[in-house]
Design a protein that fits this description.
Chain A: Its main location: membrane. Chain A: Belongs to the 1-acyl-sn-glycerol-3-phosphate acyltransferase family. Chain A: Pathway: Lipid metabolism. Chain A: InterPro entries: LPCAT1-like (IPR045252), Plipid/glycerol_acylTrfase (IPR002123). The complex is a heterodimer of chains A (about 375) and B (about 180). By secondary structure, chain A is an alpha/beta fold. Among the domains of chain A are: about 50 residues, no CATH class; about 210 residues, no CATH class. Chain A is built from 14 helices and 9 strands. Chain A has a 7-stranded mixed sheet with strand order 1-8-7-2-5-3-4, sandwiched between helices. Chain B has about 180 residues and is mainly α. Chain B has 2 domains: about 80 residues, EF-hand (Recoverin, domain 1), CATH 1.10.238.10; about 80 residues, Recoverin, domain 1 (Orthogonal Bundle), CATH 1.10.238.10. Chain B has a two-stranded antiparallel ribbon with strand order 1-2. The radius of gyration of chain B is 18 Å and the shape is globular. The chains are: A alpha/beta (about 375), B mainly alpha (about 180). At the A-B interface, α4, α5, α6 and α14 of A face α2, α4, α5, α7 and α8 of B.
């Protein structure tokens, strides 16, 4: 190991605040010998401060380890238990008995009855009436709205709708924040929307294939990159059609815990039509409606809803927005995200919801590397 | 504290606090425990590298791979000790020691030219050529009184950092 050299440059390390005295200008002005000495000291300073001192980068990493805004968006915050004393506990037990023993079976019966009626009527209409029969579409729409109302009744949802109801006309698209798949059902009971959805497996997939298809839905696949262009084209085609059901899009692309909104993807905002924002806020008083798809299957989620007292939520239909001149689709998306977040009392977060499933693009690391590299190269040139 | 219950007893908290030299308050340790449990999804007692990488803010950090090596297999007590370098209550010496450990890739107590080059490579990526990196480092080392073959030990780092102000602190949110 080489010992510490006793150059005069070394000794300057012990003197504090040397950077206040050494600037590039002061070095140029000083006489040559002194200048060489000061050059050396400056390099040593730079060695420590800009090259060896990695503390800012380390600090960022540690900050992310301790707490980060992305994970917070998908945390189900458990509510405080209120049944912790001798008076409330028996009441709570009674509540459990009522909920699981009386309400739940009753709701299941309603749901099953509703489905039977729905399937009977839907199959009749679907197979008996001709392909382009005008009545067919009307009836199918009403039937879908009916089954959604049945669903909604099965969780005893208390929903307050605010604002003018969506109208059936072309050149418009509806966007809403996403907390659970029940968002779709809640909105669907009021208006038969067409949606763009990820194909799911199991019984949900079956329903998607048969019923939702009749509403005029568009399928996408998160994992396919090329898919995006095809989907964009389908979206454009759909909003042109006069007879098509109004299109509902969840631009976050994933379920968020109803305390935050994540980045709105620009797909819905570059169609050149009106964007009607819809804000949904759930009241966690009886149950948390956030569907944490990593923790629960949809079936379990529904069961949880059906064994609680009620699902309480507010839906606001906001004023249709148009892209402003000079505004990019991304800025438009952010503006609408702001509108919805403010209305529903949610905090805005710039992360892409897809980071739940994919790692961040290496471009983000590369950008940081580029900045640091440029500063190193600049110093190299200076000397 | 190797059990799988997610409750910390007062004894546990005090043990952890001792181990990290009182770098964190008891409330902060409880917060850190909630965070540890959140990341340790399978309750295996340590956080797998994948979980750290699922935090986007961490994954985009150029030094993430180096830190993952240091974080690998740490239990909660060691996790808090790791983070103690970032507490405002920790001494400058401890922070410098942490930086030394990040550089000292093979953990042999010596930081060589190649070690520093490695970190520089992580931080600059493909935006500087390898030759330029070596050139910069060699020149700077020479000016500082070292040669390409020198290796720095902890006391060298202490001398180099002296009493400079290291802004290396994070705030632990208290739920």
């Amino acid at each position: 190991m080489a010992g510490l050299a006793t150059s005069s440059a070394e000794m300057d390390l012990d003197r504090p605040n040397i950077e206040e005295y050494l600037t590039v200008e002061s070095i140029r002005e000083a006489p040559k010998k002194l200048r060489l000495f000061l050059d050396g000291a400056l390099i040593v300073l730079w060695f420590r401060r800009d090259l060896l001192d990695i503390s800012p980068t380390l600090k960022e990493a540690a900050g992310a380890i301790v707490d980060d805004s992305f994970t917070r968006c998908f945390k189900s915050n458990p509510s405080e238990p209120w049944n912790w004393n001798i008076y409330l506990f028996p009441l709570w037990c009674l509540g459990v008995v009522i909920r699981y023993g009386i309400l739940f079976p009753f709701r299941v019966i309603i749901l099953v009855a509703g489905w039977i009626v729905f399937f009977a009527a839907f199959s009749l209409v679907h197979f008996l009436l001709g392909e382009h029969n005008k009545w067919k579409r009307e009836i199918e729409r009403k039937l879908v709205e009916m089954i959604c109302s049945v669903f909604v009744a099965s969780w005893t949802a208390v929903i307050k709708y605010h604002g003018p109801r969506p109208s059936m006309r072309p050149q418009q698209v509806f966007v809403a924040n996403h907390t659970s798949m029940i968002d779709f059902i809640i909105l669907e009971q009021m208006t038969a929307f067409a949606v763009i959805m990820q194909k799911h497996p199991g019984w949900v997939g079956f329903i998607q294939k048969t019923i939702v298809e009749s509403l005029g839905c568009i399928w996408f696949n998160r994992t396919e990159a090329k898919d995006r262009e095809i989907v964009a084209r389908k979206l454009r085609e759909h909003i042109q059609g006069v007879d098509n059901n109004p299109l509902l899009i969840f631009p976050e692309g994933t379920c968020v815990n109803n305390h935050y909104t994540v980045m709105f993807k620009k797909g819905a905002f570059e169609l050149g039509c009106a964007v009607c924002p819809v804000a949904i806020k759930y009241n966690k008083i009886f149950v948390d409606a956030f569907w944490n798809s990593k923790k629960q299957s949809f079936t379990m989620h529904l069961v949880q809803l059906m064994t609680s007292w009620a699902v309480v939520c507010d839906v606001w239909y906001l004023e249709p927005q148009y892209i402003r001149p000079g505004e990019t689709p991304i800025e438009f998306a952010e503006r609408v995200q702001d509108m919805i977040s403010v209305r529903a009392g949610l905090k805005k977060v710039p992360w892409d919801g897809y980071l739940k499933y994919f790692r961040p693009s290496p471009k983000l690391i590369e950008r940081k590397q580029q900045i640091f590299a440029e500063s190193v190269l600049q110093r190299l040139e200076e000397k | 504290m190797g059990n799988t219950s997610s409750m910390l007893t007062q004894y546990d908290i005090e043990e952890v606090q001792e181990h990290c030299n009182h770098a964190f308050s008891q409330q902060e340790i409880v917060s850190l425990y909630h965070r540890f449990c959140q990341l340790d999804r399978n309750s295996s007692g340590f956080i797998p590298g994948d979980e750290f990488l699922s935090v986007p803010e961490f994954a985009v950090n150029p030094l993430s791979q180096r830190l993952l090596r240091m974080l690998d297999g740490l239990n909660f007590k060691e996790f808090v000790a790791f983070l103690s370098a970032f507490s405002p209550r920790t001494s400058l010496q401890h922070k410098i020691e942490f930086i030394f450990r990040v550089y000292d890739f093979d953990s042999n107590g010596r930081v060589t030219f190649d070690d520093i080059l490695g970190v520089l490579r992580d931080l600059t990526g493909s935006f500087i050529s390898e030759q330029q990196r070596q050139k910069v480092l060699t020149r700077v080392l020479e000016e500082a009184g070292y040669t390409k073959d020198s290796s720095l030990v902890l006391s060298d780092f202490m001398k180099i950092f002296g009493n400079s102000d290291l802004k290396m602190e994070v705030e632990v949110p208290i739920d």
